[in-house]
Design goal:
The complex is a heterodimer. Helix content of chain A is 72%, strand content 0%. By secondary structure, chain A is an all-alpha fold. Chain B is mostly helical. The chains are: A mainly alpha, B mainly alpha. At the A-B interface, helix 1, helix 2, helix 4, helix 5 and helix 6 of A face helix 1 and helix 2 of B.
Protein backbone atom coordinates (compact mmCIF):
# COMPACT_ATOMS: atom_id res chain seq x y z
CA UNK A 1 0.00 0.00 0.00
CA UNK A 2 1.33 3.44 -0.94
CA UNK A 3 1.95 5.62 2.11
CA UNK A 4 0.75 9.21 2.31
CA UNK A 5 4.26 10.39 1.57
CA UNK A 6 4.60 8.10 -1.45
CA UNK A 7 1.26 9.29 -2.78
CA UNK A 8 2.18 12.91 -2.14
CA UNK A 9 5.58 12.53 -3.82
CA UNK A 10 3.99 10.79 -6.78
CA UNK A 11 1.35 13.50 -7.26
CA UNK A 12 4.02 16.18 -6.95
CA UNK A 13 6.10 14.47 -9.61
CA UNK A 14 3.29 14.23 -12.16
CA UNK A 15 0.98 17.17 -11.58
CA UNK A 16 2.68 19.70 -13.88
CA UNK A 17 3.18 17.26 -16.74
CA UNK A 18 -0.40 16.06 -16.31
CA UNK A 19 -1.64 19.63 -16.53
CA UNK A 20 0.38 20.40 -19.66
CA UNK A 21 -0.60 17.16 -21.31
CA UNK A 22 -4.26 17.85 -20.61
CA UNK A 23 -3.86 21.41 -21.84
CA UNK A 24 -2.60 20.14 -25.20
CA UNK A 25 -5.78 18.11 -25.43
CA UNK A 26 -8.53 20.38 -24.13
CA UNK A 27 -6.91 23.79 -24.69
CA UNK A 28 -8.72 25.28 -21.75
CA UNK A 29 -6.78 26.08 -18.61
CA UNK A 30 -9.66 25.75 -16.16
CA UNK A 31 -10.88 22.53 -17.75
CA UNK A 32 -7.36 21.08 -17.67
CA UNK A 33 -6.98 21.95 -13.99
CA UNK A 34 -10.37 20.42 -13.20
CA UNK A 35 -9.52 17.24 -15.08
CA UNK A 36 -6.17 16.88 -13.30
CA UNK A 37 -7.77 17.51 -9.92
CA UNK A 38 -10.57 15.01 -10.60
CA UNK A 39 -8.00 12.43 -11.70
CA UNK A 40 -5.96 12.93 -8.55
CA UNK A 41 -9.05 12.57 -6.39
CA UNK A 42 -10.17 9.45 -8.25
CA UNK A 43 -6.73 7.95 -7.75
CA UNK A 44 -6.78 8.83 -4.06
CA UNK A 45 -10.30 7.51 -3.53
CA UNK A 46 -10.02 4.23 -5.35
CA UNK A 47 -6.37 3.28 -5.58
CA UNK A 48 -4.63 4.80 -2.55
CA UNK A 49 -4.31 1.28 -1.14
CA UNK A 50 -2.37 0.05 -4.18
CA UNK A 51 1.43 -0.26 -4.18
CA UNK A 52 3.31 2.91 -5.10
CA UNK A 53 4.79 1.24 -8.17
CA UNK A 54 1.32 0.86 -9.71
CA UNK A 55 0.36 4.50 -9.30
CA UNK A 56 1.92 5.93 -12.51
CA UNK A 57 0.09 3.61 -14.87
CA UNK A 58 -3.17 3.90 -12.93
CA UNK A 59 -2.95 7.68 -12.90
CA UNK A 60 -2.25 7.91 -16.62
CA UNK A 61 -5.24 5.69 -17.33
CA UNK A 62 -7.49 7.74 -15.05
CA UNK A 63 -6.25 10.99 -16.60
CA UNK A 64 -6.85 9.71 -20.14
CA UNK A 65 -10.34 8.53 -19.22
CA UNK A 66 -11.14 11.81 -17.47
CA UNK A 67 -10.01 13.73 -20.54
CA UNK A 68 -12.14 11.56 -22.80
CA UNK A 69 -15.09 12.04 -20.43
CA UNK A 70 -14.60 15.80 -20.73
CA UNK A 71 -14.67 15.56 -24.52
CA UNK A 72 -17.82 13.45 -24.35
CA UNK A 73 -19.51 15.99 -22.12
CA UNK A 74 -18.41 18.76 -24.46
CA UNK A 75 -19.75 16.80 -27.40
CA UNK A 76 -23.10 16.43 -25.75
CA UNK A 77 -23.10 20.08 -24.77
CA UNK A 78 -21.94 21.56 -28.02
CA UNK A 79 -22.55 18.74 -30.48
CA UNK A 80 -19.07 19.49 -31.70
CA UNK A 81 -15.97 17.45 -31.01
CA UNK A 82 -12.82 19.20 -32.06
CA UNK A 83 -9.66 17.65 -33.31
CA UNK A 84 -10.59 14.07 -32.52
CA UNK A 85 -9.79 12.64 -35.91
CA UNK A 86 -7.49 9.67 -36.02
CA UNK A 87 -7.11 9.95 -39.73
CA UNK A 88 -3.86 11.35 -40.96
CA UNK A 89 -3.21 12.85 -44.28
CA UNK A 90 -0.04 12.00 -46.14
CA UNK A 91 -0.44 14.91 -48.53
CA UNK A 92 2.73 16.88 -49.02
CA UNK A 93 4.94 14.44 -47.11
CA UNK A 94 6.38 12.68 -50.11
CA UNK A 95 9.51 14.76 -50.43
CA UNK A 96 10.28 14.91 -46.73
CA UNK A 97 13.30 12.93 -45.55
CA UNK A 98 12.73 11.92 -41.93
CA UNK A 99 16.20 10.46 -41.48
CA UNK A 100 17.87 13.62 -42.65
CA UNK A 101 15.77 15.64 -40.25
CA UNK A 102 16.37 13.38 -37.30
CA UNK A 103 20.10 13.25 -37.89
CA UNK A 104 20.26 17.03 -37.84
CA UNK A 105 18.14 17.17 -34.71
CA UNK A 106 21.11 18.43 -32.72
CA UNK A 107 20.92 21.55 -34.79
CA UNK A 108 17.20 21.80 -34.33
CA UNK A 109 17.08 21.62 -30.56
CA UNK A 110 20.49 21.55 -29.06
CA UNK A 111 22.31 24.24 -30.96
CA UNK A 112 20.78 27.31 -29.41
CA UNK A 113 22.80 28.97 -26.74
CA UNK A 114 21.67 28.43 -23.17
CA UNK A 115 21.88 32.16 -22.71
CA UNK A 116 19.60 32.85 -25.63
CA UNK A 117 16.37 32.86 -23.68
CA UNK A 118 14.31 34.41 -26.44
CA UNK A 119 15.31 31.77 -28.92
CA UNK A 120 14.66 29.00 -26.43
CA UNK A 121 11.24 30.39 -25.60
CA UNK A 122 10.38 30.60 -29.28
CA UNK A 123 11.56 27.04 -29.83
CA UNK A 124 9.52 25.81 -26.93
CA UNK A 125 6.47 27.71 -28.10
CA UNK A 126 6.84 26.18 -31.52
CA UNK A 127 7.23 22.68 -30.09
CA UNK A 128 4.10 23.15 -27.99
CA UNK A 129 2.17 24.48 -30.97
CA UNK A 130 3.19 21.53 -33.11
CA UNK A 131 2.36 19.05 -30.38
CA UNK A 132 -1.04 20.68 -29.95
CA UNK A 133 -1.58 20.40 -33.70
CA UNK A 134 -0.97 16.63 -33.75
CA UNK A 135 -3.99 14.35 -34.11
CA UNK A 136 -5.24 13.33 -30.68
CA UNK A 137 -4.14 9.71 -30.70
CA UNK A 138 -0.70 10.57 -32.03
CA UNK A 139 -0.24 13.22 -29.40
CA UNK A 140 -1.42 10.91 -26.63
CA UNK A 141 0.90 8.12 -27.76
CA UNK A 142 3.83 10.48 -28.16
CA UNK A 143 3.43 12.11 -24.74
CA UNK A 144 2.76 8.90 -22.86
CA UNK A 145 5.66 7.13 -24.50
CA UNK A 146 8.29 9.85 -24.50
CA UNK A 147 7.20 12.28 -21.79
CA UNK A 148 5.65 10.02 -19.22
CA UNK A 149 8.26 7.44 -20.28
CA UNK A 150 5.86 4.52 -20.28
CA UNK A 151 7.01 1.58 -22.37
CA UNK A 152 5.15 0.62 -25.53
CA UNK A 153 3.02 -2.03 -23.80
CA UNK A 154 2.04 0.32 -20.97
CA UNK A 155 1.19 3.05 -23.45
CA UNK A 156 -0.98 0.58 -25.35
CA UNK A 157 -2.69 -0.41 -22.12
CA UNK A 158 -3.47 3.21 -21.19
CA UNK A 159 -4.69 4.02 -24.70
CA UNK A 160 -6.65 0.80 -25.06
CA UNK A 161 -5.02 -0.15 -28.35
CA UNK A 162 -2.39 -2.53 -29.66
CA UNK A 163 1.36 -2.23 -29.34
CA UNK A 164 1.57 -1.90 -33.12
CA UNK A 165 -0.81 1.05 -33.09
CA UNK A 166 1.28 2.79 -30.44
CA UNK A 167 4.40 2.35 -32.55
CA UNK A 168 2.62 3.70 -35.60
CA UNK A 169 1.20 6.69 -33.72
CA UNK A 170 4.59 7.50 -32.18
CA UNK A 171 6.40 7.18 -35.47
CA UNK A 172 3.92 9.42 -37.25
CA UNK A 173 4.05 11.97 -34.44
CA UNK A 174 7.85 12.15 -34.52
CA UNK A 175 7.77 12.37 -38.29
CA UNK A 176 5.23 15.22 -38.21
CA UNK A 177 7.11 17.13 -35.48
CA UNK A 178 10.46 16.78 -37.21
CA UNK A 179 8.97 17.96 -40.45
CA UNK A 180 7.18 20.89 -38.85
CA UNK A 181 10.24 22.06 -36.95
CA UNK A 182 12.42 21.79 -40.01
CA UNK A 183 9.87 23.70 -42.06
CA UNK A 184 9.85 26.47 -39.47
CA UNK A 185 13.58 26.80 -39.81
CA UNK A 186 14.70 25.05 -36.64
CA UNK A 187 17.47 23.15 -38.36
CA UNK A 188 21.20 23.47 -38.64
CA UNK B 1 35.59 6.28 -56.55
CA UNK B 2 32.12 6.95 -55.32
CA UNK B 3 31.68 7.08 -51.52
CA UNK B 4 29.17 4.78 -49.93
CA UNK B 5 26.26 6.46 -48.31
CA UNK B 6 26.75 5.73 -44.61
CA UNK B 7 23.45 7.30 -43.60
CA UNK B 8 20.98 4.74 -42.24
CA UNK B 9 18.33 3.94 -44.77
CA UNK B 10 14.65 3.32 -44.28
CA UNK B 11 15.47 -0.37 -44.39
CA UNK B 12 17.36 0.00 -41.09
CA UNK B 13 14.36 0.13 -38.74
CA UNK B 14 16.32 -0.18 -35.50
CA UNK B 15 18.50 2.78 -36.31
CA UNK B 16 15.46 4.77 -37.37
CA UNK B 17 13.63 3.85 -34.17
CA UNK B 18 16.64 4.85 -32.07
CA UNK B 19 16.85 8.21 -33.84
CA UNK B 20 13.14 8.76 -33.40
CA UNK B 21 13.44 8.02 -29.70
CA UNK B 22 16.42 10.31 -29.32
CA UNK B 23 14.64 13.14 -31.08
CA UNK B 24 11.42 12.58 -29.14
CA UNK B 25 13.15 12.52 -25.76
CA UNK B 26 14.98 15.72 -26.65
CA UNK B 27 11.63 17.37 -27.41
CA UNK B 28 9.99 16.13 -24.24
CA UNK B 29 13.04 17.29 -22.29
CA UNK B 30 12.23 20.79 -23.47
CA UNK B 31 8.61 20.29 -22.45
CA UNK B 32 9.67 19.17 -18.97
CA UNK B 33 11.81 22.22 -18.49
CA UNK B 34 8.91 24.40 -19.59
CA UNK B 35 6.40 22.65 -17.37
CA UNK B 36 8.56 23.38 -14.32
CA UNK B 37 8.09 27.08 -15.00
CA UNK B 38 4.31 27.21 -14.87
CA UNK B 39 2.63 30.43 -13.72
CA UNK B 40 2.35 30.77 -9.95
CA UNK B 41 -1.45 30.66 -10.00
CA UNK B 42 -1.50 27.33 -11.80
CA UNK B 43 1.18 25.88 -9.55
CA UNK B 44 -0.91 26.92 -6.55
CA UNK B 45 -4.06 25.36 -7.95
CA UNK B 46 -2.16 22.16 -8.62
CA UNK B 47 -0.82 22.22 -5.07
CA UNK B 48 -4.37 22.65 -3.78
CA UNK B 49 -5.50 19.75 -5.97
CA UNK B 50 -2.73 17.54 -4.58
CA UNK B 51 -3.58 18.44 -1.00
CA UNK B 52 -7.27 17.81 -1.64
CA UNK B 53 -6.48 14.40 -3.13
CA UNK B 54 -4.27 13.51 -0.16
CA UNK B 55 -7.02 14.54 2.25
CA UNK B 56 -9.45 12.32 0.34
CA UNK B 57 -7.01 9.40 0.55
CA UNK B 58 -6.58 9.92 4.29
CA UNK B 59 -10.35 10.14 4.85
CA UNK B 60 -10.83 7.01 2.79
CA UNK B 61 -8.25 5.12 4.83
CA UNK B 62 -9.75 6.28 8.13
CA UNK B 63 -13.23 5.39 6.93
CA UNK B 64 -12.06 1.83 6.26
CA UNK B 65 -10.04 1.48 9.44
CA UNK B 66 -12.79 2.08 12.12
CA UNK B 67 -15.03 -0.51 10.48
CA UNK B 68 -12.43 -3.19 10.83
CA UNK B 69 -11.76 -2.10 14.44
CA UNK B 70 -15.48 -2.35 15.23
CA UNK B 71 -15.67 -5.84 13.79
CA UNK B 72 -12.66 -6.86 15.82
CA UNK B 73 -14.21 -5.34 18.95
CA UNK B 74 -17.46 -7.19 18.43
CA UNK B 75 -15.65 -10.45 17.91
CA UNK B 76 -13.69 -9.83 21.09
CA UNK B 77 -16.84 -9.10 23.10
CA UNK B 78 -18.63 -12.21 21.92
CA UNK B 79 -15.57 -14.21 22.76
CA UNK B 80 -15.59 -12.68 26.24
CA UNK B 81 -19.27 -13.58 26.78
CA UNK B 82 -18.19 -17.10 26.10
CA UNK B 83 -21.22 -18.74 24.59
CA UNK B 84 -24.42 -18.49 22.62
CA UNK B 85 -24.70 -17.14 19.15
CA UNK B 86 -24.41 -13.35 19.59
CA UNK B 87 -25.89 -12.59 16.23
CA UNK B 88 -29.27 -14.14 17.24
CA UNK B 89 -29.44 -12.09 20.44
CA UNK B 90 -28.42 -9.01 18.57
CA UNK B 91 -31.13 -9.60 16.02
CA UNK B 92 -33.74 -10.18 18.73
CA UNK B 93 -32.65 -7.05 20.57
CA UNK B 94 -32.85 -5.01 17.43
CA UNK B 95 -36.33 -6.46 16.63
CA UNK B 96 -37.71 -5.56 20.09
CA UNK B 97 -38.39 -1.86 19.40
CA UNK B 98 -40.18 -2.86 16.22
CA UNK B 99 -42.36 -5.31 18.14
CA UNK B 100 -43.24 -2.65 20.76
CA UNK B 101 -44.12 -0.25 17.99
CA UNK B 102 -46.44 -2.77 16.31
CA UNK B 103 -48.24 -3.58 19.57
CA UNK B 104 -48.66 0.12 20.27
CA UNK B 105 -50.14 0.71 16.82
CA UNK B 106 -52.65 -2.14 17.27
CA UNK B 107 -53.74 -0.78 20.69
CA UNK B 108 -54.17 2.73 19.31
CA UNK B 109 -56.27 1.38 16.43
CA UNK B 110 -58.50 -0.56 18.84
CA UNK B 111 -58.98 2.47 21.06
CA UNK B 112 -59.88 4.59 18.04
CA UNK B 113 -62.43 1.99 16.79
CA UNK B 114 -64.05 1.86 20.22
CA UNK B 115 -64.37 5.64 20.31
CA UNK B 116 -66.03 5.58 16.89
CA UNK B 117 -68.53 2.94 17.96
CA UNK B 118 -69.39 4.84 21.14
CA UNK B 119 -69.92 8.07 19.20
CA UNK B 120 -72.20 6.31 16.68
CA UNK B 121 -74.20 4.70 19.51
CA UNK B 122 -74.68 8.06 21.18
CA UNK B 123 -76.02 9.58 17.97
CA UNK B 124 -78.39 6.63 17.37
CA UNK B 125 -79.82 6.71 20.89
CA UNK B 126 -80.26 10.49 20.71
CA UNK B 127 -82.16 10.13 17.44
CA UNK B 128 -84.36 7.33 18.74
CA UNK B 129 -85.15 9.11 22.00
CA UNK B 130 -86.07 12.34 20.29
CA UNK B 131 -89.71 13.29 19.43
CA UNK B 132 -90.89 12.25 16.00
CA UNK B 133 -91.59 15.28 13.78
CA UNK B 134 -95.10 15.30 12.13
CA UNK B 135 -93.52 15.61 8.72
CA UNK B 136 -92.08 12.10 9.17
CA UNK B 137 -95.56 10.61 8.73
CA UNK B 138 -95.74 12.04 5.24
CA UNK B 139 -92.57 10.20 4.29
CA UNK B 140 -93.44 7.05 2.28
CA UNK B 141 -90.34 5.28 3.51
CA UNK B 142 -91.29 5.82 7.14
CA UNK B 143 -94.87 4.68 6.48
CA UNK B 144 -93.52 1.51 4.91
CA UNK B 145 -91.27 1.00 7.92
CA UNK B 146 -94.25 1.34 10.27
CA UNK B 147 -96.24 -1.21 8.22
CA UNK B 148 -93.33 -3.65 8.23
CA UNK B 149 -92.76 -3.12 11.94
CA UNK B 150 -96.49 -3.77 12.71
CA UNK B 151 -96.49 -6.99 10.72
CA UNK B 152 -95.68 -10.08 12.86
Amino acid sequence: MASDKELSDFLKSVDKRAFKRTMYMVRDEDAALDIVQDSMIRLAEKYADRPAAELPLLFQRILSNATMDWFRRQKVRNAVLQNMSDFDTDAGEGDFDLLESLESADGMLGAESAADVVSRTQTLQLIEEQISALPTRQREAFLLRYWEELDVAETASVMGCTVGSVKTHCSRAVHALAKALRTKGFAS
Amino acid sequence: MKDFDTRPSASDPHRLEALQGQFAFRLTGQLSRASEALPHEISERLRFAREHALAVAQRHRHAVAPGSVAVLGLAGRSAALGGGPPSVWLRLASALPLLVLLIGLVLIQQHYDLQQIEAAAEIDSALLADDLPPAAYRDPGFAEYLRTADAP
